[in-house]
Amino acid sequence: MLNFLDAPKSLTLASLEVGQHFYWHLGGLKVHGQVFMTTWFVMAVLLIAGFLASRNPQQIPKGIQNLMEYALEFVRDLAKNQLGEKDYRPWVPFIGTLFLFIFVCNWSGALIPWKLIQLPEGELAAPTNDINTTVALSLLVSIAYFYAGFKKRGLGYFGKYIEPTPVLLPIAILEDFTKPLSLSFRLFGNILADELVVGVLVLLVPLIVPLPVMLLGLFTSAIQALVFATLAGAYIHEAIEGHGEEHEEHA
């Protein structure tokens, strides 16, 4: 059952509920406790992995250092492909953080038996299984590409809203709203659907059938992290270059 909260005492970016939730009351705020716990777990995993990989670096990497260096090379190539040789370096940390955070979040929902941990209400799941998490990540992307465009092009960045004609101004503004919406709902919908399908199959056929679906879920979870990071890079590149500079390059 889907329930949109409209309580004036709660402050959330988006309030879409599936089932029950375990809430924390922090002053006048009501937050999803299970989302905070799993998010902290993911951040701890990434911080520990980064610490272990960098505490004693070797010229010939192995183990966790080799894994993290491979992840860095992958993210660097991803950012370079989307932003180009001259603009990608400052954005590697941002795009890399998005990719690794979403990747570990998604895989935590597929690999860790969160449901074995009992809560007073609700149950633990991947942080990206909650619409508030995906909306927050999408808003970060929106802030990033506005910042990138304004930093690179100054007030000229806003000229994109009236190019090639001011008649397109409403469509250009609407496009800025649809970008974070599409990012957030794509990620949320795919992760939620995968967990629901696996949960139903485990109840119906608990032995063999869920295994290939779980493997497919791992693959799609990785793809969703890649898609999110790729689109973030593409949006930032679009803000940096702008329509006018693209036309000049082609001319």
Automatic annotation (TrEMBL):
Belongs to the ATPase A chain family. It is a multi-pass membrane protein. GO terms for molecular function: proton-transporting ATP synthase activity, rotational mechanism. It is found in: Cell membrane; Cellular thylakoid membrane; Membrane. The chain crosses the membrane at residues 31-53, 91-111, 131-150, 187-209. PANTHER family: ATP SYNTHASE SUBUNIT A, CHLOROPLASTIC. HAMAP family: ATP_synth_a_bact (MF_01393). Gene3D superfamilies: ATP synthase, F0 complex, subunit A. The keyword Ion transport applies. SUPFAM superfamilies: F1F0 ATP synthase subunit A. This is ATP synthase subunit a. Key component of the proton channel; it plays a direct role in the translocation of protons across the membrane. It holds the Pfam family ATP-synt_A. Its main location: membrane. It comes from the Bacteria. InterPro entries: ATP_syn_F0_a_bact/chloroplast (IPR045082), ATP_synth_F0_asu (IPR000568), ATP_synth_F0_asu_AS (IPR023011), F0_ATP_A_sf (IPR035908). GO terms for cellular component: plasma membrane-derived thylakoid membrane; proton-transporting ATP synthase complex. Keywords: ATP synthesis, CF(0), Hydrogen ion transport, Ion transport, Membrane, Thylakoid, Transmembrane, Transmembrane helix, Transport. It comes from Romeriopsis navalis LEGE 11480. The keyword Membrane applies.
